[in-house]
Design goal:
By secondary structure, the protein is of the alpha+beta class. The chain has five helices and eight strands, in the order ββααβββαβαββα.
């Protein structure tokens, strides 16, 4: 099911047919360098099943990104509920196949997810959890209007919590 489109991307629910694209992405050491490890087939299937389950549970999760021009699987981006310092937060997360890096797709998708969270879900703010050494993801968050709100430990790693408020999006520029 298509959730929305951007200028160059179709954003849709992940489905079983995305397994190979996810598996290839999760096994690329470049893509996974800021994660504890790559994912084998079983872990990839668990991830896919979890995302599909979240669609039923909350109506959103990480979604597939397809390039409109040729329908190529670019990666995933979307919204995830995260427990951060005992609070339920809504995170914009993104992970793209390395062959699609440096083309602005992550920023394009993250901005659209931010708009979706504010306009469709009525959220007052959204966050992104990023390890301090992950400068590419930090740059995407900053291009998405986010700034560091606080530091935390998330799943055993130091993380910067980037945040943008819906109110700041309404302000004249």
């Amino acid at each position: 099911m298509v959730i929305f489109e951007t200028e160059r991307l179709r954003v849709r629910e992940l489905q079983q047919s995305d397994f190979q694209g996810l598996y290839a992405m999760f096994n690329d050491p470049l893509v996974m360098r800021y994660y504890p490890s790559t994912r084998d087939e079983g872990a990839t299937q668990e991830w896919l099943d979890r995302m599909i389950g979240y669609y039923t549970e909350s109506g959103y999760a990480l979604w597939a990104l397809d390039r409109k021009a040729d329908n190529a699987f670019v990666g995933q981006c979307g919204l995830l509920k995260q427990n951060v310092d005992g609070q339920q937060e809504l995170e914009i997360g993104y992970l793209l196949s390395s062959e699609h890096w440096h083309q602005g797709y992550a920023t394009e998708a993250a901005r659209a997810c931010k708009s979706y969270a504010f306009e469709k879900l009525g959220r007052p703010y959204v966050i992104s959890l990023i390890r301090p050494i992950n400068t590419p993801s930090r740059a995407v968050a900053e291009r998405n209007g986010m700034s560091v709100w606080k530091k935390t430990v998330f799943r055993g790693y130091e993380a910067l919590v980037y945040r943008v408020d819906a109110k700041s999006e309404d302000a004249p520029r």
